[in-house]
Amino acid sequence: MKHVLSIVALLFVCFGRGQAQKISLTEVNGYIGKYVTICGLVTGVIQDTRSTGSPTFIDIGNADRREQLTVLIWKEDQGNFSYPLRELMGGRICITGIIMQYRGRPEIVVKGPGQISKD
Question: What's the CATH class of domain 19-118?
Fold first, then answer.
C-alpha cells in the first residue's frame, strides 16, 4: 500500500500541477521553486561522465548569466529519450519544470521528453 501511495504522490507532482506559466529567460531568477515553461536557444550540451550520475547539462540562453538556464538530465533518465540529446544543440526548445537553484544558477531537472518541446 505504501508503494501505491508513493506512485500516486509522484503522479500528482508530475501531472497535477496544471498549466505551467510561460516566462522569459530574463525572468528566470524570480521564479525559483515555481513550475514554468521557458524557451530559448540551446548553446551547449555536455555529458559529464566523470561526475556521479553521469549528468547531461543543456545550456539555454546567451552569454549574459542573467539570461541562462541549465537543464539537467541524469543518466538514469537519458534512456527515456528516443534521440541523442546532442541533437538539441543550436535549436530553440522549450523546457517545462520546476526551477531550482544550484550554486547560484537556475536549473530545471528533466526526467523525460515530455518536458522538452521544439520552439
Answer: mainly beta
pLDDT tens for 15-61 read 556 799 999 999 999 999 999 999 999 999 999 989 888 999 999 99
CB-count burial class (<10 Å; 0-12, 13-18, 19+) for 12: exposed
The pairing of beta strand 92-102 with beta strand 56-61: unpaired
| Residues 6 or more apart whose Cβ sits within 8 Å of residue 42 | 58, 59, 60, 88, 89, 90, 91, 92, 93
Distances (CA, A) of 21 to 28, 82, 84: 11, 27, 28
